[in-house]
Design brief:
The structure is a single chain. 6% of the residues lie in helices and 44% in strands. The protein is mostly beta strands. The protein has three domains: 161 residues, Jelly Rolls; 38 residues, no CATH class; 80 residues, Immunoglobulin-like, CATH 2.60.40. It has a five-stranded antiparallel sheet, with no helix packed on it. Strands 14, 15, 17, 18 and 19 form a five-stranded antiparallel sheet that branches.
């Protein structure tokens, strides 16, 4: 069975040593555990865990529809449907969903962070299925309940976005809760939340600038606060609202007082603290500037707050300057 993935069955012959014997037939379902990589993962709805009713899923009725995929013939058989036409064909999906049903998927998240959750759904009822679906991770609701709008046809699938949610690292159960009937689901997608590009970020603030570099250029300063657009981008600030510049502080320990700077920076973008004693030569080397403590990531998972300080006390080197440089993704 090494390396086997899929469904299979085998028989075990039993003997009691006194002439009695029997044969037991065992069904085996082996699934690979999805691992959420840097590019994300898509989990097909029909690839729920093995274990049966009450363990891997809860289904309120016997199999509906002609598909025989993963059927066990029980009165609680998950309704898997074949998509042979429409937007997502060919594929399989979970259909004939009823209020109170659920499915479980073992998933591995290598790191704690924010993940964008998307669901691929169909709703041919002609009406929105209100608060129809939610997701649990480690027994806690992390997304939803989400409503599933009408897609006009059972073979017409659309993607609904649950936004970015916080998920802790580990291998555990992701549970799809169905709180209403009237929709089908094809897949669940989980993608690590990522920083927007500078181009999309600046366009969001100035959609009608028409590419005017005096407004949307990386070195432009449309709000006149002394910070260029690229600095505003890297520091998580708004380029259309004048804000106070970063102000250094003094950090104290038993060795004296040190020039320090605390700032928020966009993850995935090169945002570097630098120090100088002449405003000409700048350095970010550990021999000149060190980080204090660990970075603190905010609720969005896109930004972290850090503090850097000089390695030289202000008594030893009275003339010191610190700045932040953003050099792009």
């Amino acid at each position: 069975m090494a390396g086997f993935v899929g469904d299979d069955a085998f028989e075990v012959a039993l003997a009691d040593g006194r002439g009695g014997s029997d044969t037991v037939r065992c069904a085996v379902v082996v699934r690979t555990v999805p691992v959420v990589s840097s590019s994300g993962v898509r989990i097909e709805a029909e690839e729920f865990d093995g274990g049966g009713e009450g363990v891997a899923y809860h289904d309120t009725d016997a199999r509906q529809g002609p598909s025989q995929v993963r059927t066990d013939g029980s009165s609680h058989d998950v309704d898997i449907v074949e998509l042979d036409r429409g937007t997502d064909a060919p594929a399989q999906a979970i259909g004939y969903i009823e209020d109170g049903e659920w499915l479980r998927y073992t998933v591995t998240f290598p790191t704690t962070g924010r993940y964008t959750v998307r669901l691929r759904v169909a709703n041919g009822t002609g009406a929105t299925a209100a608060d129809a679906v939610a997701l649990h991770w480690k027994d806690a609701v992390v997304a939803g309940p989400l409503s599933v709008p009408s897609t006009a046809d059972w073979d017409a699938y659309a993607t609904i976005d649950a936004g970015a949610v916080s998920l802790s690292a580990g291998t555990d159960l992701l549970q799809l809760d169905c709180n209403a009937s009237g929709f089908d689901i094809n897949w669940i997608e989980l993608v690590p939340a990522q920083a927007p590009s500078f181009a999309s970020w600046i366009e969001g603030y100035f959609p009608n600038a028409g590419g005017n570099v005096a407004i949307v250029g990386s070195s432009a300063d449309p709000d006149g606060d002394g910070l260029s657009n690229i600095l505003e981008y890297g520091l998580g600030r708004a380029p259309d609202i004048a804000e106070r510049a970063l102000v250094p502080t003094l950090w104290s320990d038993t060795g004296g007082k040190y020039l320090a700077l605390t700032f928020r920076r966009l993850l995935g973008v090169t945002v570097t603290a630098e120090i100088s004693d002449d405003l000409v030569t700048w350095s970010s080397d550990a021999g000149s500037l060190v980080q204090i403590g660990t970075a603190t990531t905010d609720a969005s998972g896109l930004y972290e707050t850090v503090t850097f300080r000089s390695v030289s006390s202000v008594a030893a080197k009275p003339r010191q300057f610190v700045r932040v440089r953003v050099s792009g993704p």
